[in-house]
UniProtKB/TrEMBL annotation:
It comes from Pseudomonas vancouverensis. InterPro entries: 2Fe-2S_ferredoxin-like_sf, 2Fe-2S_ferredoxin-type, 2Fe2S_fd_BS, Beta-grasp_dom_sf, Cbr1-like_FAD-bd_dom, FAD-bd_FR_type, Flavoprot_Pyr_Nucl_cyt_Rdtase, FNR_nucleotide-bd. This is Ferredoxin--NADP reductase. Coiled coil: none annotated. Residues 273-362 form the 2Fe-2S ferredoxin-type domain. It holds the Pfam family FAD_binding_6. The lineage of its organism: Bacteria, Pseudomonadati, Pseudomonadota, Gammaproteobacteria, Pseudomonadales. GO terms for molecular function: 2 iron, 2 sulfur cluster binding; flavin adenine dinucleotide binding; metal ion binding; oxidoreductase activity. Keywords: 2Fe-2S, FAD, Flavoprotein, Iron, Iron-sulfur, Metal-binding, Oxidoreductase. Residues 15-119 form the FAD-binding FR-type domain. Its cofactor is FAD; [2Fe-2S] cluster.
Length: 362
């Protein structure tokens, strides 16, 4: 595939995104490579990120523009430029496209987003263990957290890294260098399907000895994450200390438009007389047109609320419904507990009552 014909130039980026040039390509394994992006000085503040966050890419494919999220494997504390790592998936339209990108190509990118980040309250708690579970390419966001923590604190870090076999281990050489540089702080355990089989609850319990009462970050294949999370909860670890990153592929643009039309039509009968937004410690009462999403109303009123993909899968526009009711059209990111706690996605929610009050995270 010729990426030069399909990639974008700086003038072709769509609303909300920008074009960034690939300045380095690193072959990590036979089916995974990292892309380093050049961020010009004028965009560095906009692309400032936290360890564990991701970038969303809009990719032209067969006459459509597909959106996918890829976590940054780089650390804002240790690396000069952001780096995403993409593993080729059988039949994956975007992952295969991204694995053909070359140095000098331009990619359409949305600003950093995601909440898979270390709580700042605990980030420098040197007595609190940090336990990371990465499965396959799920190593990417936890690797960013690992590198950042090594730079910012002396807290003990344990990484449990599961892969098919030794040849599938992404960042193998970089991990070896970090282990040598931090032998007393960093402990890495490799679990290979070809040797030990798939990770079991019994193995998780064994690996967690001496690491109770910590912060836990999990990213990888669904069954892998479910096993680890289920075991941690059964061991009595608090749910708010267990962080799981789940990525799903959003529907194609034509499917999204059909869903949007149905949701708008269903909400047209409701009229919100008072939409109150709590943002950065201030309160704003703004108008709301029938059928508009909460995010659309905020943008129309000139409020700079957090958002990124606007398609319901990145979670950047998460907010809490403090009063009133909303209708959530699409959700690929919020957990049942978060929904029960009142969280919603501003880009996918529409007010269904006369008065709605929202609070965006500080």
């Amino acid at each position: 595939m010729g990426t030069q014909q399909q990639n974008l130039t700086p003038a072709q980026a769509t609303t909300g995104s920008v074009s960034l040039q690939v300045c380095a390509v690193i072959d990590e394994t036979a089916d995974a490579r990292s892309l380093v992006l050049d961020v010009p000085p004028t965009l560095r503040e906009r692309f400032r990120y936290k360890p564990g966050q991701f970038l969303s890419f809009r990719v032209p494919f067969a006459g459509k523009v597909l959106t996918r999220c890829y976590s940054m494997a780089s650390s804002p504390h240790a690396d000069a430029l952001p780096k995403v790592t993409v593993k080729r998936v059988d039949g994956g339209r975007v992952s295969n496209w991204m694995n053909e990108v070359q140095v000098g190509d331009w990619l359409e990118v949305l600003p950093p987003a995601g909440l898979f980040c270390l709580d700042e309250r605990h980030a420098t708690d040197n007595d609190r263990p940090l336990v990371l579970f990465g499965g396959g390419s799920g190593i990417t966001p936890v690797f960013s957290i690992l590198k950042s923590t090594l730079q910012s604190s002396t807290r003990p870090i344990k990484l449990v890294y599961a892969n098919r076999d030794e040849a599938s281990v992404i960042f193998k050489d970089e991990l070896c260098r970090l282990i040598k540089a931090h032998p007393d702080q960093l402990h890495v355990v490799h679990v290979l399907d070809s040797v030990q089989g798939f990770l079991t609850e019994a193995q998780v319990r064994h690996l967690l000895r001496g690491s109770a009462g910590g912060d836990y970050f999990i990213c990888g294949p669904g069954p892998f994450m479910d096993t680890v999370e289920r075991t941690l909860l059964a061991m009595g670890e608090p749910a708010d200390c267990i962080h799981v990153e789940r990525f799903v592929s959003p529907p194609d643009p034509d499917e999204l438009l059909a869903e949007e039309a149905l949701a708008r039509e269903a909400a047209m009968a409701s009229h919100c007389e008072a939409l109150i937004i709590e943002l950065d410690g201030q309160q704003h009462e703004i108008p709301c047109q029938p059928g508009d999403t909460l995010l659309q109303s905020c943008k129309t009123a000139g409020l700079d609320v957090p958002s990124s993909c606007e398609e319901g899968f990145c979670g950047a526009c998460m907010c809490v419904v403090k009063e009133g009711e909303v209708q959530l059209a699409r959700n690929d990111v919020l957990t049942p507990k978060e929904l029960a706690d009142g969280w919603t996605l501003a880009c996918q929610s529409r007010p269904t009552g006369a008065k709605v009050r929202l609070k965006f995270p500080d």
